[in-house]
Design brief:
With 606 residues, this protein is an alpha+beta fold. 43% of the residues lie in helices and 10% in strands. The longest helix is centred in the middle third of the chain and has 41 residues, at 218-258. The two termini are 54 Å apart. The chain binds 2-acetamido-2-deoxy-beta-D-glucopyranose (6 copies). One 2-acetamido-2-deoxy-beta-D-glucopyranose is lined by residues 27, 29-30, 82.
């Protein structure tokens, strides 16, 4: 909370007249077993300036957190219904102690019994565990038994929760305080997370409660500010009240426009012919049949991808991001606009986006792209494909992908680094024209998710060493990943070669070992239909090895790659590689030797 906001709330406290409450006799003889004190650390974040719907969502999230703590202590999700009244009173008491108090139930329209109602007829831990397989529960345990401080950990955990039953896709979305979606987080925080629901990171990540960063020095600061406020109060109150009204009005206007759902879609013109559609949440729900499980066409660290049909019958892909961070809607919209301004035949086109706030599921961010129907390159290379890709099709995919990337790097303004080039992100249309997907999304996805999966080795397969080790990110990191994809495309082998249980070799190392002894054609996949001329196939292999060179200075630019693939231009000589990934990644002085004829002695000088 900023000084300014504290100041405003103090002034408000002076100005507001306590609303008189009707006197209702409420049954408080049964003590509430929930412990609301654990959300005390968050209630200052329930800001008076928030719109009511946001405020009420926070109230609901607070209840879920408290229920999670209760579940952990008693193995029961819900308090007995006879205690509903006292539970609301306990909560109200806590809210009354914060700087912004309001009557929860009348403001938000919560019915008293809701606090004791939940997902279907499940009330105990064992009932919940009985309807979920041991594999699912173990998956949740593995993904969530870690600190949820980092966005990556959070996304890993929340992704695993989507496997829990009962699946909520058709379920109650409003009304009940703890529906089946909520039960997933309540369960995970209670039993799968090592820190438990009272932990600040867990509470923030799984229940979207706002962190109050200035907790420690708050008292001191509040005193200072209160004294300051009193001094200036008399002279400035009128000016400030006027200012506050203007500020609030502006803010509300912005909020309603940016976040709250409306039933109309707006056309955001971003210049030229490109119109980016801002979809409403209800339009997105309709297109995906309420995010039906049968519409899921992909899963990732950031969330699920759904197939959808727009009212004009066009088919689209909708990517729904995990709501690990409630902040940053404005930058999300900004990034989406930049991505939408990039159009190329080899890039998946973005049609629009949706930002919404829902009661049951919190912040929602969804992007809507053209549907590319023929699956990904990964499916074709490693899936249960009926027949292998022919050499001419492989050439077409290599060239198209290179053109798409070259456009991102050099044609787009500002230039875009993809950061997550892999076979799964190269989509193919009916004519096997490749379309690069997910560009620019690395910035939108929860921090770190797109390139760092939980399988660090798998990451190393595609991520350039200087990026993986030192976080140095340039266009040449994309070139490295492109080189790996090109190797996969030519060899039909995965970026990480598995042998034995825990033994892996990088495809790039394996390819280099063959090139080094003059056998580049051994890399080409056996049984590839319609093989090309050997010198062309060798050129592809050499280019792939050059692009996946561990030292970034050695890699060509994507423009050079396109030129080499598209003309008679030869592949430059491949510089010698250090034999360890960690050695000399940034080195600029390395012996240059001709390809295919290096002896082991020059290789082992490192
Ligand atoms: C309050 O609820 C308890 C338990 O349901 C019940 O025994 C008691 O009679 C109720 N008291 C009033 C005043 O309604
Ligand atoms: C909370 O404060 C309101 C007045 O703002 C009062 O009417 C109500 O009784 C209080 N509730 C509790 C539980 O203290
Ligand atoms: C909930 O009730 C339904 C039918 O009413 C039943 O099929 C289901 O098994 C019950 N679930 C649990 C966890 O008891
Ligand atoms: C799941 O785990 C529990 C306890 O660990 C065990 O009793 C049960 O048999 C397991 N169920 C299956 C289907 O493996
Ligand atoms: C979670 O991990 C901690 C240590 O990392 C371990 O002590 C604890 O037993 C684990 N929790 C569960 C439920 O397995
Ligand atoms: C809440 O859930 C109960 C079942 O647990 C159901 O009967 C009730 O209709 C639901 N309330 C709302 C408002 O959906």
């Amino acid at each position: 909370m900023s000084k300014f906001q504290i100041f405003i709330s103090i002034i408000l406290a002076f100005c507001s007249v306590a609303a008189s409450q009707p006197i209702i006799t409420r049954n408080t003889t049964v003590k509430c077993p929930l412990d609301f004190s654990i959300i005390r650390q968050f209630t200052e974040g329930f800001r008076p300036s928030e719109p009511v719907s946001d405020q009420c969502l926070l109230i609901v999230q607070g209840i879920r957190l408290v229920q999670s703590d209760y579940l952990r202590r008693t193995n029961s999700f819900l308090p007995p219904s006879s205690s509903s009244e006292s539970c609301w009173n306990d909560y109200q008491n806590l809210i009354n102690q914060s700087s912004n108090s309001f009557d929860i139930r009348t403001t938000c329209g919560f019915q008293t019994q809701w606090i004791a109602q939940g997902c279907e007829n499940i009330t105990t831990r064992s009932e919940y565990e009985n309807i979920n397989s041991n594999a699912t529960l173990n998956g949740v345990l593995q993904a969530c038994n870690q600190s949820l401080h980092s966005g990556e950990a959070c996304a890993t955990c929340t992704t695993s929760l989507s496997a829990l039953l009962p699946s909520d896709v058709q379920g109650v979305r409003v009304g009940n305080v703890s529906d089946c979606t909520a039960f997933k987080s309540i369960y995970a925080a209670a039993f799968a997370n090592l820190d438990g629901p009272a932990n600040r990171d867990t509470a923030q990540r799984l229940f979207a409660l706002p962190l109050d960063s200035s907790k420690s020095n708050k008292k001191h600061r509040n005193t200072l500010i209160a004294v300051f406020s009193l001094l200036v109060f008399a002279s400035f109150v009128i000016a400030f009240v006027g200012f506050w009204w203007m500020w609030r009005k502006k803010r509300e206007k912005k909020k309603t426009k940016g976040i709250l759902d409306s039933n109309l879609s707006h056309l955001d013109s971003i210049g030229g012919n490109n119109a980016l559609i801002k979809f409403s949440y209800s339009e997105v729900e309709k297109a995906t049949k309420n995010f039906s499980l049968s519409n899921i066409i992909g899963r990732g660290g950031y969330g699920n991808v759904y197939k959808g049909v727009l009212p004009d019958r066009t088919e689209v892909a909708l990517k729904r991001f995990k709501n690990c961070s409630a902040a940053g809607d404005a930058s999300f919209a900004h990034e989406v606009r930049i991505i939408a301004s990039v159009r190329h035949v080899n890039l998946v086109a973005l049609r629009g986006y949706c930002i919404a706030m829902t009661k049951s599921e919190g912040h929602q961010r969804i992007i809507v792209c053209d549907l590319v129907k023929n699956g990904s390159l990964h499916d074709h290379l490693f899936g249960p494909a009926e027949k292998k890709l022919s050499w001419p099709i492989r050439q077409k995919i290599a060239l198209g992908t290179a053109r798409g990337l070259a456009y991102l790097h050099n044609g787009a303004q500002p230039s875009i680094i993809h950061r997550d080039i892999k076979a799964g992100n190269i989509l193919l249309d009916e004519d096997f024209e490749p379309k690069v997907a997910d560009f620019g999304l690395a910035k939108i996805a929860p921090e770190g998710v797109s390139h760092m999966s939980t399988h660090v080795a798998g990451t190393m397969g595609y991520v350039a060493p200087e990026y993986a080790l030192y976080g140095k990110l340039t266009e040449r990191s994309d070139v490295y990943s492109f080189g790996i994809v090109l190797l996969e495309l030519v060899s039909g082998k995965k970026a990480l070669l598995k042998h034995g249980d825990d033994q892996h070799t990088l495809l790039a190392d394996w390819a280099w070992s063959l090139v080094k002894v003059g056998r580049p054609l051994d890399i080409v996949e056996e049984g590839t239909p319609e093989l090309g001329p050997p010198e062309i196939m060798e050129k592809y292999v050499m280019l792939a090895v050059l692009c996946s060179h561990p030292q970034l200075y050695a890699r060509p630019t994507m423009d050079q790659v396109v030129k080499i693939l598209d003309s008679n231009e030869p592949v430059p000589v491949i510089p010698e590689r250090p034999n360890s990934f960690t050695a000399n990644v940034f080195g600029t002085e390395t012996p240059i030797s001709s390809t295919g004829s290096n002896s082991m002695s020059s290789y082992s000088t490192y």
